Amino acid sequence: MSEFSLLDMYRKMLLIRRFEERCNELYMQGRIPSTLHLYIGQEAVAVGACAPLTDADYLFSTHRPHGHALAKGVSPRSIMAELFAKVTGCCKGKGGSMHVGDMRVGMFPAVAIVGANIPLAAGAALAAKRLNDGRVTACFFGDGAANEGAFHEGLNMAAIWKLPVVYFCENNLYAASTPFSTAFNIKQVADRAASYGIPGIVVDGYDVESVAEVAEEAYNRARRGDGPTLVECMTYRLCGHSRSDPRTYRTKEEEAEWQARDVIPTTASRLLDRGLATQERIDQFEAEVKAEIDDAVQFAEESPYPEPHELMEDIFAPEAAL
Amino acid sequence: MSQMSIAQALRQAIREEMLRDERVYCIGEDIGVPGGFGGAFTVTLGLSDEFGRERILDTPISEIGLAGVAIGSACAGMRPIADVQYGDFLFCMMDQLANQAAKMRYMSGGTIKVPMVMRAPVGSTSRGAQHAQSLEAFFTHIPGLKVVAPATAYDAKGLLKAAVRDDNPVIVFEHKLLYGSKGPRSERGALSPIGEVPDDDYIVPIGKGIIRRKGKDVTIVGKLLTLYRALGAADELAKEGIEAEVIDPRTLVPLDKDLILESVRKTGRLVIVEEDNLTGGWAGDIAAIVAEEAFYWLDTPIKRLSAPDAPAPFAPVLEQLYVPSVANVVQAVKSLF
């Protein structure tokens, strides 16, 4: 097991939290169009799962991708510019919030059809295996995706061909507003791993170190040629499903329970308790992260919108030399 | 130069492309199983002996997974030739083709390539409503997909090779009655045209149609099986002094519309023959293009000759009414004179 720097992981989680809070503000002010699916509360999953990855490794995300993107190393500037629909965005303003990605750091444009990224990730892993390039693929999805046919087909194919892919199910207990218990007749999504003959592991998604540890073991298994793992990360949105969600389907008590375990203050306390950081250092992180986000917002605001000619560009790749 | 069927020509194209480029592989159901079929219509027969089971990759009966793996692997550096047993099953994988393959490049701001081929057999062959559809129009409607429909052995090899080398997702529609599949996979009533195919490397460029027969009195556009119905009708019409020009578009997206427009500007009449259902179909789209861009050259209204708006029937007597026949084409043309 590698020692992942808790300090670094904390800083990443803090960046995601503050970035998402700022996105929410900007949205409320009408400065970001469309809708947003915020990652607030789930930061430990993305950061823990991405800690053992390099830029060469692949990541597939969902309609809630900002956290995955930041954890994988997509620049805050290019994500923010994308949310502002600017041409300097990571998808040139053609993707938007639900499709952020950047292949320079191995992140595919996020896939906003629930579960559709699961067979795609198997395909990328198949390519890595055939090309023998040593890459591993991380694929994120919510509990809702586990009831899609694509989940079954993708996991089964990854399993029979022992593909180097790790599936992270972020079980945040609700598929939009539908509670887990009304959509599953089993206790855990990870139980389904048995039907594909692969390991299924449940991990506390509010403990970044646990996630990183389980993720690394799963990646090692994948890279050894032993096939995929289904990692179910128990987590919780400390925000609505999207910007139009008043969260009336959850109880205040349940929200308070998870709020009390919020990964940002609990990880900060852990840093202090272990003597890995002083309160001063933690405060300094806040200032650094704020500056980074201020810079991203300024960059996004000052960037131009796509020109009209962009509408009809990037539909097809230029033909390869025949 | 060899004489071969479309199935043989496709097989030769796959073999040559796999020898040329290590990244090319086939993925599909029942395509490489030893003692198996070589795909539903024998196109991949024998290839797993030469290339092994990893490069002729059999999948479970999982069309979403099959398409998703092909697309994901294409995005990550491979060049898959995927195979669906019957075109009708494309509906099972529609999200992967329409939302993923077609849009990945655009929504990534042009940073991703999806060099994937999806081969799909279409056409009525007395199998009833779920194994007989012609689905081309569903796919010509989706920006980001290229669509080809070879009707001869020469084009089958050349267009498939071009599709494999193209950096975009290409759907290749093949007609069941044109394959020339042998043995237990042969089709009753098949035309199975045998054609001359060069043994050396060549491609047929995507986006180029061809005039199959020259004429001055009427333009008939047909693809796949209906190309042959159009050619048969042209023979009949010639006996009565009507010289039909028969156009095979070969590629549906991007369409070689200038070829059709030039012909109509010469003949002043247009009949489009296809096996797909009439409403919202491909024939309507061709008619619209000609009406917009060559209206003043038309001497008569445009005629669409498509399958009626019914599911493909099972009973052969009904199927004969469903798919436009040579006699139907002759009648449609004559109605314009």
Could you write a compact summary of the structure shown?
The complex is a heterodimer of chains A (322) and B (337). Chain A is α/β, with parallel strands linked by helices and 322 residues long.
Helix-strand pattern of chain B: EHEHEHEHHEHEHEEEEHEEHEHEHH
What percent strand of chain B? 15-25%
Number-wise, the strands of chain B total 14
Query: What value does the Rg of chain B take, in angstroms?
Result: 19 Å
Helix proportion range of chain B: 25-40%
Q: CATH homologous superfamily of the largest domain in chain B, by name?
A: Thiamin diphosphate (ThDP)-binding fold, Pyr/PP domains
Count of helical stretches of chain B? 12
Describe the sheet with the most strands of chain B: 7 strands, mixed
**CATH topology-level name of the largest domain in chain B:** Rossmann fold
| Low-confidence spans of chain B | none
CATH class of chain A: Alpha Beta
The CATH topology of chain A, please?
Answer: Rossmann fold
Q: Between the first and last Cα atoms of chain B, what is the distance in angstroms?
A: 42 Å
Flag low-confidence runs of chain A: none
Descriptive notes:
- The complex is a heterodimer of chains A (322) and B (337).
- With 322 residues, chain A is of the alpha/beta class.
- Chain A has a single domain (6-303), classed as Thiamin diphosphate (ThDP)-binding fold, Pyr/PP domains (Rossmann fold, 3-Layer(aba) Sandwich), CATH 3.40.50.970.
- Helices cover 42% and strands 10% of the residues of chain A.
- Chain A contains 11 helices and 7 strands.
- Chain B has 2 domains: 2-197, Rossmann fold; 210-334, Rossmann fold (3-Layer(aba) Sandwich), CATH 3.40.50.920.
- In chain B, 35% of the residues lie in helices and 19% in strands.
- Chain B is built from 12 helices and 14 strands.
- Chain B has helices at 6-20, 47-51, 63-75, 94-101, 104-107, 136-140, 153-165, 225-239, 257-267, 282-293, 316-322, 326-334, and strands at 2-4, 24-28, 56-58, 79-83, 117-122, 146-148, 170-175, 195-197, 210-213, 218-222, 244-248, 251-253, 270-277, 303-307.
- Chain B has a 7-stranded mixed beta sheet with strand order 3-2-4-5-7-6-12, with helices on both faces.
- Chains A and B meet through helix 5 and helix 6 of A and helix 3, helix 4 and helix 5 of B.
